[in-house]
Amino acid sequence: MALLQISEPGMSAAPHQHRLAVGIDLGTTNSLVATVRSGSTACLPDSEGRTLLPSVVHYSASGVDAVGHKAQARQNADPANTIVSVKRFMGRGLKDIGDLATPYRFVEEPGMLKLHTAAGIKSPVEVSADILRTLKDRAEASLGGELVGAVITVPAYFDDAQRQATKDAAKLAGLNVLRLLNEPTAAAIAYGLDNGAEGTYVIYDLGGGTFDVSVLELTRGVFEVKATSGDSQLGGDDFDHRIHCWVLEQAGLSQLNAHDTRLLLTRAREAKEALTDHDVTHIAATLSDGQAIDVEFTVAQFQQLTAHLVQKTLTPVKKALRDAKITAADVNGVVLVGGATRMPHVRQAVETLFGQTPLTNLDPDKVVALGAAMQADVLAGNKGEDDWLLLDVIPLSLGLETMGDLVEKVIPRNSTIPTARAQEFTTFKDGQTAMAIHVLQGEREMVRDCRSLARFELRGIPPMVAGAARIRVTFQVDADGLLSVSAREMSSGIEASIAVKPSYGLGDDEIGRMLIDSMKHANDDMTQRKLAEARVDALSLLQATQNALALDGDLVDAEERAVIDAVLANLQQKMAADDADAIRITAEKLNEVTATFAARRMDAAVKRGLAGHKIGDL
Amino acid sequence: MTFDFAQNHFELFQLPILFALDNKQLDAQYRALQAEWHPDRFASGSDAERRLSLQASTQVNEAWQTLRSPVARARYLLALQGVDTQEETNTAMPMDFLMNQMIWREHIAEGKASQNVERLEELNSELREEMGALESELAQQLDVAQDFAAAALSVRKLRFMEKLDQEIGDAIESVLF
């Protein structure tokens, strides 16, 4: 029946031809590119031997002036045009980023903010693309050829808008995205394969701007994510920010200009790093007005200032354990990822919670890029039969707005991807021909507490009485964790079907274009499904009619019976063929010719029900 | 490459069409099917291959989620028999069951009000025990007696209890986090 048969002419790579693929860790503070070469995985260095590329872009009037170390060197002199930690702005609006001290001039845009630079207004997607392009050039120069594709890592806790923004940035940089891979999952691959680990592992990933925690089950070549949680606005930057505020307080300063803010944030980061190996450090700076700052800063002060931030990471850890239905005692190992896990009090807090020393034998800065490179190698088709399987989950529930500003969850968090779920809705007014659909992501009950992913209107519903139309909304989450939504009216012969890729700040014309695109694609795979559904629906109608005729055949006269039998035979014939529309039309016809019969059966049933009862009994 | 979307979930996992289920076998089959159909296997494939693998892998996940949850599995078995569990429409529950529900709700509310996580955890394991007992009944009703009306009632009861389970989980989270 609905057997999908697709045979493809040889699409696979020629044997022994190694396809160049890379893994890219697009970090808040630093980014890296890694690849698998002759069986070993390594991060690719720049011409000066450095593997870390600071995620910093400096813009001048002529465009991109510098990316990485050179750009970082410019940040004190030209803070407003030197974009750091752009990852925090991906897929985010102004209200999302709060009171983070930054020297930038933002432009409020629907969906995602933009930044004023000397090179004009830049979106975070464009800035990220400039970083990715630098890494792509580095990889191609180093590997001596064009890349077939890249795996780009994202925080596991990134929502749909943030993922979509990252994928767009990669496309803009000219990269073929093989997969968006969750950072903790990438770390688990690198760690698990390196150590032959089996059992339950927790990946605690505190990066520059994001915190992720994932619980994984590792069994013979299968990496299965059981639960993930995190905070996409919490990272090493917040520790710098705390120090920065403390210095302001100590020096009796209030608002600083962009230059001084950047200078003090840089000194704060240096102090934080110094306290990893020392008990005390000095924070010294000369502000633009000539005022000199020189304060002593101790480990004890630092830990006291930031204890609440460390605590804040433990809540998602506990949530993930609960969602995975395990306790801290069930965990075989805790892997630390991200530069911020170098802070001794972070390590201590993790150790206390799990009652075991965390695993730190892989470089926390590189482990994500290495895992992404391994996955890229597999996805590019360079591995044989014995490669591993990765089963990841969606971090946040997806839902729809319903009456009373409430969110109805359609796909719960921690569902294994890819996944799809359909929900049926109906009209609430007679003759209603359109319906608004609002897609949300988050765990809260109220619409205002969740992230709005998309709003669209389903038009062209055939006018019917209230409650008669059946609108099926289908959510599909692909292996990148990206959502597409389609909706269609089920009860009528006419099908209205659209698919929308929810995204940030889409203009009307963009949505229009997407709708047309998605209609084209949707038609291909819907033909098979439509046929299967038409057959199932027709079969139940056929059986219902035959049953009714067997029971109450005396309610139709010979002439009516002949008409019904003819349509029944016709429907059976149509069901054997492959035309879904023909099946539906014939099923409709059967409905029509049996309408009188159905009404008589109803009357008869009512009469039977009343027989033997007096009016007073009812 | 072919994937038969018309197979029912049990056929897909090569399992007997029964409520009683070998979880190990289910998980082993699940991994074998994902190893074959997961989109990672077709990342460098043609558009058609990638689309088919997305649909097939989605179907495998859907089937796995349905089969590994006792309530969903029972509901699915009943649907295969053409029996609607009427979870939205049939609200006529036995009186003693409804009384019991009210008592559960009171206990949860008390545990939440007093922020007593231990008590809530205790309630949770009590509830899980009751659900386990009802699941054993379901196995009897579905696999042995084939009393589908009784099984449908058990599913409706379990649906109520799942909601309680969810409420306890939410209460614990609201106290803890």
Instruction: Give the helix proportion of chain B (percent range).
Output: over 70%
Name of the CATH class of the largest domain in chain A: Alpha Beta
Oligomer: heterodimer
Question: Which architecture of the largest domain in chain B would the CATH scheme give at its second level?
Answer: Up-down Bundle
The CATH topology assignment of the largest domain in chain B is Monooxygenase
Total domain count of chain B:
2
Q: What is the fourth-level CATH superfamily of the largest domain in chain B?
A: HscB, C-terminal domain
Which stretches of chain A of 5+ consecutive residues score pLDDT under 50?
A: 1-15, 505-525, 612-618
Q: What is the number of domains of chain A?
A: 3
Mean pLDDT of chain B: 92
- Computed over alpha carbons, the radius of gyration of chain B is 20 Å
Q: Which fold name corresponds to the CATH topology of the largest domain in chain A?
A: Nucleotidyltransferase, domain 5
Based on helices, strands and strand pairing, what is the structural class of chain B? mainly alpha
The overall average pLDDT of chain A, rounded, is: 85
Look at the structure and give the CATH class of the largest domain in chain B: Mainly Alpha
The biggest sheet of chain B, with number of strands, parallel, antiparallel or mixed sense and barrel status, is: none
Tell me the fraction of residues in β-strands of chain B, as a range.
Answer: under 5%
Give the proportion of residues in helices of chain A. 25-40%
Shape, principal axes of CA atoms of chain A: elongated
Task: Give the ordered list of helices and strands of chain B.
Answer: EHHHHHHH
GO biological process, one term (chain A): iron-sulfur cluster assembly
Pfam families (chain A): HSP70
Function (chain A): Chaperone involved in the maturation of iron-sulfur cluster-containing proteins. Has a low intrinsic ATPase activity which is markedly stimulated by HscB.
InterPro entries (chain A): ATPase_NBD, Heat_shock_70_CS, HscA_NBD, HSP70_C_sf, HSP70_peptide-bd_sf, Hsp_70_fam, ISC_FeS_clus_asmbl_HscA
